[in-house]
Amino acid sequence: MKLLVKAPAKINLSLDVLHKRDDGYHELEMIMTTVDLADRLELALRNDDRITVYSQSRFVPDDERNLAYKAAKVLKDRLGIPKGVEITIEKNIPVAAGLAGGSSDAAAVLRGLNKLWGLGLTLDQLATIGAEIGSDVSFCVYGGTALAKGRGEIITPLPAPPNCWVVLAKPPIGVSTAEVYENLQLHNVVHPNSKAMVEAIEQNDYFGMCQNLGNVLESVTLNHYPEVKSIKNDMKRFGADAVLMSGSGPTVFALVQHDSRMQRLYNGLRGYCNQVYAVRMLGKRNEQ
Ligand SMILES: C[C@](O)(CO)[C@H](O)COP(=O)(O)OP(=O)(O)OC[C@H]1O[C@@H](n2ccc(N)nc2=O)[C@H](O)[C@@H]1O
Ligand SMILES: Nc1ncnc2c1ncn2[C@@H]1O[C@H](COP(=O)(O)OP(=O)(O)OP(=O)(O)O)[C@@H](O)[C@H]1O
């Protein structure tokens, strides 16, 4: 028996860090949304009880370090499942990019195995298990748009954001999320207004959303990697309504409403950046 599952990338429309916690993690307030750039996973039942993982990407490990493997292992061990799975990942989301590719693969495995292994768990139960694998996994279990608090695992759903194009550009560098958080100087940042962003989304106010984009982690990544800052400037020059780095970076995204502006931005960036994508926000949450 085989199952195909989609694992969409996320962007952070807003990312605020409130303080560093005693457990070493940072207390967050983020607004996240999934976009239609996705990995595709095939889950196939095995004849034995082993978990195997394979992807064509040379940037992703084919062993127990893969977040997709970890998701299957946690589920199997927690519930004592005597079954195995062969996971094949078609990797379309850039790796170590701030787009939660690994977390989304893990979430897709949780959702997929819930069906393939016939577990009957709710999305809430899967999201709780997901939090053990990584801070972004709970959000990825639900997808759609949400306010995320705590270390990222406390999720409140939001309506779909105003309709627009999202043009993503990934400079040819990988960024370590751990290093970005370690280097964050909280006394030195401009905090985004998460409340105003939530209101803009709830009122379907496109320009309100544009005005309230903000990410405190830019203070670290833009300083360490000037090329990220320069792509942001180029996007503005090419006519973006608003521009922001996603997560810990280095991917930057631009928002535009009209097809012609999207095309101009896309073509302009493609001139010197290999990984450029014009996508839509998905809006819709995953079903059970
Ligand atoms: C940057 C974001 O992608 C924004 O959505 C997330 O906050 C990071 O999510 P993630 O990659 O799933 O994070 P994890 O795998 O749990 O942690 C990676 C590293 O980031 C740090 N980290 C993560 C989340 C958090 N709230 N505070 C942190 O300080 C952790 O110390 C860890 O060393
Ligand atoms: N299935 C997977 N897909 C991508 N990366 C994976 C996967 N499993 C493990 N990894 C490892 O995790 C690291 C981070 O990859 P990922 O693409 O999830 O980063 P990210 O987009 O910055 O995530 P986030 O936005 O959640 O911080 C990479 O070094 C990669 O080798």
UniProtKB/TrEMBL annotation:
Q: Which residues bind ATP?
A: 94-104
According to the lineage, what is the superkingdom?
Answer: Bacteria
Q: Which residues form the GHMP kinase C-terminal domain?
A: 197-273
Root EC class: transferase
Q: Output the InterPro entries linked to this UniProt entry.
A: GHMP_kinase_C_dom, GHMP_kinase_C_sf, GHMP_kinase_N_dom, IspE, Ribosomal_Su5_D2-typ_SF, Ribsml_uS5_D2-typ_fold_subgr
Q: What is this enzyme's catalytic activity, as reactions? A: 4-CDP-2-C-methyl-D-erythritol + ATP = 4-CDP-2-C-methyl-D-erythritol 2-phosphate + ADP + H(+)
Q: Does the keyword Chloroplast apply?
A: no
| Name of the molecule in the record | 4-diphosphocytidyl-2-C-methyl-D-erythritol kinase
Q: Report the source organism.
A: Perspicuibacillus lycopersici
